[in-house]
Amino acid sequence: MEALFLPDFQNREAFLRRFSPAERRYIGRSICRRPIEALRIGCGEPRVLIAAGFHGTEYLTVLTALEFALEYAEAPQNEVWFVPCVNPDGTEIALHGCESAGKRRECVRQICPDKNKWQANARGVDINHNFDADWEQVHRRERAMGIDRPSCTRYGGAFPESEPETQALSRLCRRVRFERVLALHSQGREIYWDFGEHTPPCCRTLADKMAAVSGYKVACPEPIATGGGFKDWFIQCFHRCGYTVEMGLGENPLPLSELPKEYPKVRELLRVFVSD
Ligand SMILES: [Zn+2]
What we know:
This protein is α/β, with parallel strands linked by helices and 276 residues long. It has one domain (27-57, 73-275): Zn peptidases (Aminopeptidase), CATH 3.40.630. It is built from 9 helices and 8 strands. The protein has an 8-stranded mixed sheet, sandwiched between helices. The structure holds zinc ion.
């Protein structure tokens, strides 16, 4: 299978049909009942996970995960799982506006009519603030910033793991017991690897290796971005390595035309991540 950069996001289903039924499975449904799909490619240890599409406007990450999954399927070594789009409703809202939210279209419009700002799920919860990692602290910080209700970004929900998208991913991790995970976001060309005392020391080493092949920087997050995130939860829950990679440079949403330039860097980084 040759590499394919999707000119049109609508072709996602056609793209997914390039994977065998045995490689595809559903791990949950979004608020608007869109399927959340996982791909399992290869077998054997270590089992690792690459997840993308947490935030609506970061649809470049979805295409990157799909593209890399397709490449990896040509010569798999160990078992790699992909969840290319954790937040399918948010992605559709960011691409096509409130109408994509079905019955929730009026709520979405009232929360934020500008699709280019939409990061949350269809209920206005930011999935990457909804994981159960120091969630109370994250919640307090949100309120201090005036974010105390559904919003297009940074509202962590009424309680940790309140959202079906968050539940789908944490359920998968509890079941499969990944050796390490990587979450793709945009933007900044940065790699985050640390979350408090449970971070294994070896996590920094792999972050440095990924930085060396991609030109991305190893970084520490701003306080508002700490906690509640998928990698934070994974590190805290399993005491194993979890990474956030902020791909691309510019202002979200990064245009799809950025993908051919950025993908080669991320591909090298992901190759190191899966095979280390
Ligand atoms: Zn993000």
